[in-house]
Amino acid sequence: MKFSPLLTELIEALRCLPGVGPKSAQRMAFHLLERNRRGGAVLADALQQALDKVGHCQRCRTYTEQDVCDICASPKRQASGVLCVVESPADIVAVEQSGQFHGRYFVLMGHLSPLDGIGPADIGLDQLQRAFSAGDLKEVILATNPTVEGEATAHYIADMANSCGLHASRIAHGVPVGGELESIDGTTLAHSFAGRKRVE
Amino acid sequence: MKFSPLLTELIEALRCLPGVGPKSAQRMAFHLLERNRRGGAVLADALQQALDKVGHCQRCRTYTEQDVCDICASPKRQASGVLCVVESPADIVAVEQSGQFHGRYFVLMGHLSPLDGIGPADIGLDQLQRAFSAGDLKEVILATNPTVEGEATAHYIADMANSCGLHASRIAHGVPVGGELESIDGTTLAHSFAGRKRVE
Ligand SMILES: [Zn+2]
Ligand SMILES: [Zn+2]
After folding, report:
1. What angle do CA B12, A63, A193 make, to 5 degrees?
2. What mean pLDDT comes out for the span A80-104?
3. In terms of Cα–Cα distance, which of B161, B164, B191, B160 is closest to B175?
4. Alpha helix locations (H) across chain B?
5. CA separation, residue B86 to residues A6, A10, B60, B77, B156 (Å)
6. Which of A27, A138, A168, A169 has a CB 3.0–4.6 Å from the CB of A81, allowing a cystine?
7. What pLDDT, on a 0 to 100 scale, did the predictor assign at position A200?
8. What does the alpha-carbon distance between residue A18 and residue A116 come to, in Å, rounded to a whole number?
9. How many angstroms is it from A90 CA to the middle of ligand 1?
């Protein structure tokens, strides 16, 4: 004997969430059914809505339910001539909170990882190449994570930028090695941006 | 600048899950959108279905999408004359896996906890009283958790049963003090059932 069919399905379905095993899934299902049906209904709806409507910005690849995200739709941002390359949409939020950057972004949605079979096309570098070739950029700031893969990805993109005659700089001071960009405070990130160095 | 409205709503909504903070919620939302949209759609649907249809069994209070759960609907189980009182629907699954019990259940959906304002009516004891008075029971097995609250609840129910002229027994050997019934293996539970003692 197990739980009823619909409860069993809910427990199974909750396991698609990262870090959720059978016991957590069961605890979540009971919690929603017993103590927070309203929250559960809001979650079911928000999840359905997001899956139906949230896609990637056609220009920077961040998550948005529009064709083009708010930052990419801003003429001032577009006219800045500066592009910041980050690994994740969460990194945009972190950089924006530092208040030190007023240009555009490009989100890789990951980093180069040959061992996992993740190559340039998988992180949108063909699209980034087209942005580099468009002629409206004067600098590319490489704000990938300060990890081995993030550094390797930054160097790869710096080479692409240099080939197009663009300055590429890497954010520098204050980012702890091995850390994750999105968990760093705004002040530290502001220092990182101010102390960026050109990648040759 | 934050995430897009629908993504922000999804991250907020995921926080209704127990043990999920802002960072976990964000990681979950990204994971669903980026790597498992199919799993997310299944989850949204399973959650909606469960919220719409899963309620409590009219007889034993466990979760079911029927009026009466499969165990309560079994004439053999009903005719056994033995009722096992547990705290949670998960405990039924644990007891069933021990293979030692063939009677009916009653699920408290909690335990007495005066400090939290949880009294007899909140754990269905008025309904349990009616079952005791119906005249078709010969024994009540108290399988609440071996915690302070579980023991107090068992004693309270034993008194109710004795007042109705019913034998009440408490599962005993093998259940570690301070543990949770649902995490105990079937063999240990089988010993617990075999070694049960009458509560006077
Ligand atoms: Zn964009
Ligand atoms: Zn039932």
Report:
1. 95
2. 90
3. B191
4. 5-14, 22-35, 37-53, 75-79, 89-98, 125-133, 148-163, 186-194
5. 21, 22, 10, 16, 13
6. A138
7. 66
8. 19
9. 13
Q: What is the ipTM of this complex?
A: 0.82
Could A16 and B43 be called an inter-chain contact, meaning their C-beta atoms sit closer than 8 Å?
A: yes
| CA-angle at B29, arms to B26 and B30, nearest 5° | 85
3-state secondary structure (DSSP) of residue B109 = coil
Ligand at minimal distance from the CA of A103 is: 1
C-alpha B151 – ligand 2 centre gap (Å)? 23
Mean pLDDT of chain A: 90
Q: Closest chain A residue to B12 measured between Cα atoms?
A: A43
Phi, psi dihedral angles at A123 (to 5 degrees): -110, 20
pTM: 0.81
Q: Bridge partners of A140? A: A83, A168
Q: Which domains does chain A have, with CATH numbers?
A: 5-53 (1.10.8.420), 73-170 (3.40.1360.10)
**CA of A38 relative to ligand 2 center, distance in Å:** 25
Can you read off the two tokens belonging to residue B79?
A: 């005719």
Amino acid letter, residue A33: L
Residue A31 near chain B (CB below 8 Å): yes
Residues of B in contact with A179 (CB under 8 A): none
Inform me whether the C-beta atom of residue A17 falls under 8 Å from chain B C-beta atoms.
Answer: yes
Q: Which of residues 77-136 of B touch A (CB under 8 A)?
A: 88-90, 92-93, 96, 109
